[in-house]
Specification:
Chain A has 11 helices and 14 strands. Chain A is an alpha+beta fold. By secondary structure, chain B is of the alpha+beta class. The chains are: A alpha+beta, B alpha+beta.
Chain lengths: 291, 785
């Protein structure tokens, strides 16, 4: 592995100052599961690695209020296993449970997975489906960015040099809401997906669809919100026919490319299947919530 | 077999028992020393500069900046190698065409161009980037069939065959072309009622052993010592002694899996050259990407044309195959050639023509993959078997039973088959999977269900003249323990345990009195390599021979010390005693003490030679033993996504005799799990410009435990005469039979016979929605009429 200098800041302010002073030479590390591999492979060649691990401002979860606050260093494994998150933010826990392997989930963090901007990862899709917001801190102060607006392209985000994600806020879903996260891989379930989908459905008191959020991963440069597919469902009575139509529309909205995980046409087919299955599960969960 | 055993009890942990592997505890507690754990005084670290191009002439190399980099010990380039008159820079066991590092041109992406040796690996990596190489790019050829075409770029302008049986076509990329003929192929086709012709292809994959390739070399005036995880230390020693004109010692510690990827050396000679230049021990450990560039299972394309009678009797088969050698013929052409005699399957076929082409391309060198290319041939002839059976309306089981080779058949002149029982293997898996009552096609769950079969014949590497291919030594030491010294490399297959069990059984003592020392060319006797399922048979016979001699000696020594007739002496775990007189016994420790020296004997396994047929004609014996095995698979296919789920697999092999039944079953299980990958999704991909796209396991999926189905490993035991307690090898047939069984199960489920691996879900879905047309059989007699 290439040599670099290891920086261990003692505060968020110190971290962002160092990053702002070394915009081209420093990289941020949280869990390190992506960064270390890329340095090892020579894809990234930082002179400095700024380890955020241990910064107390980035730790902890607070689910006492309506909004779930997650420190950026919250591990994927915590998202998967925390009883509160599992019960109230099931889509997030479900997405977390499908990320890579337990070894990775034990160290990978929510802040890292959002900041990395990889179009295939599961957590960002779930966060978008749940209307989550990321808090970004730089030398100039902090700002909140909807995760939906966070990604600009593959491995490209709204983060400016010297900015880091400090926490993620997830608003509590309203009653009569259900969601589902699905991932499709070739070979081991630990592999990167051919496609993944996070779906959240909110029903009105009559059982019609009040809002649908359908997020598709690995089938575009960023996690894609299938707005036209969601529009098909809004205000409708939800059934197989509606789901099939929405899934077909979502597949049209996807924008996959050919790669080692499959040809584009196949990824489109799979995203259709995942969205349709996800919607079916989400409805049954939303209906269970309504009772 | 040894002296009289009357009164002795069956030793604990002997043949037929399933003790835990002797090395298991050390492995699970992390005490086992692997290559990367070895530290040496003054050891420097090497990194390899590799070619970015698949085919290019090296114009110049400037390493001056790298040499000046702090912490760099030396940089090895072609200039240093060519300037050293003591080094013959080329090696190889079939073609001698692989250089220590590229001397004139590079022949695959990742080919070795220079080696930087530094105080640590990181510094070596930094200095690699300072080596300036000017290349003149040449047109590359990536596909073996294209490489055979007129006008294709030539990978080796000069062919350098060194093996007696290599037949290159000079001026082409064909490193070896050989044919096997039996009967009259044209007459066979003319006499057939139907002729089926199909093409099949299997892409390149890598073995993906848990431990990556690595070497430590130390060059001194007194000699060279090499620590490596190579599977063939003795041939390597011989080759290095020739190249460096020095005495060489090769030590192979415990190896974390080889599967053929380490069957031959690739970076050993390079590391020795680096160590010579450095003047101190040098360690080179490869990463995953480099391992993909070191040895691969070759792509194989074949066309199988088979003539059958309407009743399913196979009359003629022409099997033509093209095996990719890659950039260097270190062993690739031999591996292809070695499958000539098994390429048409475990069937009696009177008229046979096999055409073998081993072809150079600009890809990494090819290596055997747990069973040579037998797997690829099996996939071809077994899936065609099911297509023929279905077309002719014959039960696939019946069709195989009708055509199987039987006990005593002469498969190929010189090869009298013994311990066959292919039929029993098939019948066992048919029963285990419930083949006869299968419900094929769509089920109530919306999935497509099917079951499939495959059968194979596999040979083991055998020299053309009688050779003590493997030797061993058994020594009773002064601590009262027996040491078995064997050449077999322990790469996780359980060889130490099996060989200790054979030794214990032959001596008549418990397993806990045996310890095993393996694969150190200065300490353990000669062995031709831990490949081709050789270990149990060859080292087994050698330790058996040695142990029998030791037992005879013990009886003789006991007879003197106890002052009784030798026939009265019995050897037990307690030592040497007098039959029927429990009080009169001398422990082994005391025996060595009183005898004055350890009791040591060497043993050998002599194989190979000529077979004389009834007319007096002589033929070289192809194979010391033949393996027969069958598999059955049950699958379900999703018509929505094209996914294949393997529900259950059964595998049965006639291994002669199971020395350790648990270990033998694990070989079948491991083989199934391993070859599920290349069947379903593994594939190394080079783009058109010759760049490997899978550079990491993130981009090269492997089977994980979640995918491993319920399986039934079945041991069929028909002892082979001349084998240790009747035991043949079992290490490779599990992989060999897996792909065809899965392909046939998918055929049964979907009606689609796939001719190309892997069966990724996109490929399956595309075929489900647009079913390919099979070539209809030709009816030669109808045409004539």
């Amino acid at each position: 592995m290439r040599r670099f200098e290891y920086i261990k800041p003692t505060s968020v302010q110190e971290a962002v100052k160092f990053l702002a002073d070394h915009p081209d030479e420093a990289m941020v590390m949280a869990g390190g599961t992506a960064l270390v591999v890329m340095i090892d492979q020579g894809v990234l060649r930082p002179d400095y690695v700024v380890d955020l691990g241990g910064l107390s401002d980035l730790q902890g979860q607070d689910s006492s209020n309506e909004t779930l606050h997650l420190g950026a260093l919250t591990t994927v494994r915590t998202l998967e296993r925390d009883p509160q998150i599992k019960e109230r933010f099931g889509v997030l826990a479900e997405a977390a449970s499908q990320v890579a392997s337990v070894r990775i989930r034990n160290v990978a963090t929510i802040g890292g997975t959002v900041s990395y901007g990889e179009p295939q990862t599961d957590i960002p899709a779930a966060l978008i489906a749940l209307n989550a917001t990321a808090t970004v801190v730089g030398t100039e102060g902090s700002r909140d960015v909807a995760v939906e607006d966070f990604f600009l392209g593959p491995y490209e985000t709204v983060l400016e040099p010297g900015e880091i994600v400090t926490r993620v806020g997830v608003p509590a879903p309203s009653p009569r809401t259900g969601g589902c996260h699905m991932k499709f891989t070739i070979g081991s379930p630990e592999n990167k997906p051919v496609a993944n989908a996070s779906v959240v459905l909110r029903l009105d008191s009559s059982g019609r669809c009040e809002e649908a959020r359908i997020v598709m991963g690995a089938v575009g440069p960023i996690p894609l919100l299938a707005t036209k597919a969601a529009a098909i469902l809004k205000g409708e009575v939800l059934n197989e026919t509606a789901f099939a139509a929405a899934a077909a529309k979502a597949a049209e909205e996807s924008d996959p490319v050919d790669d080692l995980r499959g040809p584009a046409w196949y990824k489109r087919r799979i995203i259709r299947v995942l969205v349709e299955r996800g919607l079916t599960w989400a409805l049954s969960r939303a209906a269970a919530q309504s009772q | 077999m040894g002296p009289e055993q009357s009164g002795s009890t069956k030793p604990v942990g002997g043949v037929g028992a399933s003790p835990a592997m002797l090395d298991a505890e050390d492995k699970v507690t992390g005490r086992t020393v692997y290559l990367a754990d070895i530290e040496m005084e003054g050891m420097a670290h090497a990194r390899v500069l590799r070619s970015p191009f698949p085919h290019a002439r090296i114009v110049s190399i400037d390493a001056s900046e790298a040499r000046a980099h702090p912490g760099v010990v030396c940089v090895l380039t072609r200039d240093e190698v060519l300037a050293d008159p003591e080094i013959d820079p080329y090696f190889g066991y079939v073609m001698r065409d692989a250089p220590v590092l590229a001397l004139d041109k590079v022949r695959h992406q990742g080919d070795i161009v220079a080696v930087v040796v530094a105080e640590d690996e990181t510094t070596a990596g930094e200095a690699l980037e300072m080596v300036d190489v000017e290349y003149e790019e040449l047109p590359a050829v990536i596909d073996a069939v294209e490489a055979m075409a007129e006008g294709a770029p030539i990978v080796h302008e000069e062919m350098k065959p060194i093996a007696w049986d290599m037949k290159p076509i000079y001026g082409s990329n064909i490193a070896h072309h050989a044919t096997l003929m039996r009967g009259d192929i044209e007459r066979g086709f003319a006499e057939s009622d139907y002729i089926f012709e199909d093409s099949y292809s299997v892409p390149p994959v890598q073995h993906c052993a848990l431990e990556l390739h690595g070497v430590i070399a130390n060059y001194t005036e007194d000699g060279i010592t090499v620590w490596t995880n190579c599977q063939s230390p003795y041939p390597l020693r011989k080759e290095l002694e020739r190249m460096y004109k020095r005495k060489v010692r090769v030590i192979v510690p415990f190896v974390g899996g080889g599967f053929g990827s380490k069957s031959r050396d690739r970076i050993e000679a390079t590391t020795v050259a680096a160590a010579k230049l450095a003047g101190r021990p040098v360690r080179l450990l490869l990463n995953q990407e480099e391992t993909f560039q070191t040895f691969i299972r070759p792509a194989l394309t074949c066309t199988t044309k088979t003539g059958v009678k309407a009743d399913g009797t196979i009359v003629a088969r022409h099997h033509k195959f093209v095996s990719d050698v890659g950039g260097y013929g270190i062993s690739g052409p031999r591996n292809a050639n070695n499958t000539l005699k098994i390429a048409t399957g475990p069937y009696r076929i009177p008229h046979v023509l096999v055409d073998c082409y081993a072809v150079y391309t600009n890809k990494p060198p090819s290596a055997p993959y747990r069973g040579l290319p037998t797997t690829q041939h099996t996939m071809a002839y077994e899936s065609q078997m099911d297509r023929m059976a279905k077309t002719l309306g014959i039960d696939p089981v019946e069709m195989r039973l009708k055509n199987f080779l039987r006990e005593g058949d002469v498969h190929v002149p010189g090869d009298l088959l013994r311990s066959v029982h292919a039929d029993e293997c098939l019948e066992k898996v048919v029963e285990a999977i419930g083949y006869k009552n299968r419900k094929s096609g769509p089920g109530a769950d919306g999935k497509l269900h099917g079951k499939g079969l495959s059968c194979t014949i596999k040979y083991t590497i055998t020299p053309p003249v009688p050779t003590a291919a493997t030797q061993a030594e058994v020594v009773l030491r002064d601590d009262g323990l027996f040491e078995a010294l064997v050449g077999t490399v322990n790469m996780g297959q359980g060889s130490d345990t099996i060989l200790a069990q054979i030794t214990a059984e032959a001596l008549g003592v418990n397993l806990d009195l045996i310890r095993v020392t393996h694969s150190d060319t200065d300490v353990t006797p000669e062995d031709n390599g831990t490949t081709a399922s050789r270990g149990t048979f060859h080292s087994g016979n050698a330790v058996l021979d040695a142990a029998n001699k030791v037992r005879t000696n013990l009886a003789a020594i006991g007879s003197q010390l106890l002052e009784v007739e030798q026939s009265q002496v019995q050897v037990t775990s307690q030592g040497v005693g007098v039959s029927g007189e429990p009080g009169r016994n001398i422990g082994f420790k005391e025996l060595v003490q009183r005898h004055g020296e350890p009791v040591a004997e060497k043993g050998a396994c002599v194989v190979g030679g000529l077979y004389t047929d009834e007319t007096g004609r002589q033929y070289p014996i192809t194979s010391t033993f033949w393996s027969f095995a069958s598999a059955a698979a049950e699958v379900e296919v999703s018509p929505e996504t094209g996914e294949i789920r393997i529900v259950k697999m059964a595998a049965a092999a006639n291994l002669g005799k199971a020395i350790n039944p648990r270990s033998a079953k694990a070989q079948l299980e491991g083989g199934i799990a391993m070859d599920m990958g290349p069947t379903l999704f593994e594939k190394l991909v080079w783009d058109d410009s010759g760049q490997l796209l899978n550079t990491h396991l993130m981009d090269y999926p492997l089977p994980s435990m979640e995918l491993v189905p319920e399986y039934a490993p079945i041991l069929v035991e028909h002892p082979l005469e001349g084998a240790p307690f009747g035991a043949k090898g079992i290490g490779e047939v599990g992989t060999v039979i897996t792909p065809a069984a899965i392909v046939n199960a998918v055929y049964d489920a979907t009606g689609i016979l796939f001719h190309e691996l892997p069966l990724t879900p996109d490929v399956v879905l595309a075929a489900l929605e647009n079913p390919p047309q099979e070539n209809p059989p030709v009816r030669p007699k109808a045409t004539q009429a």
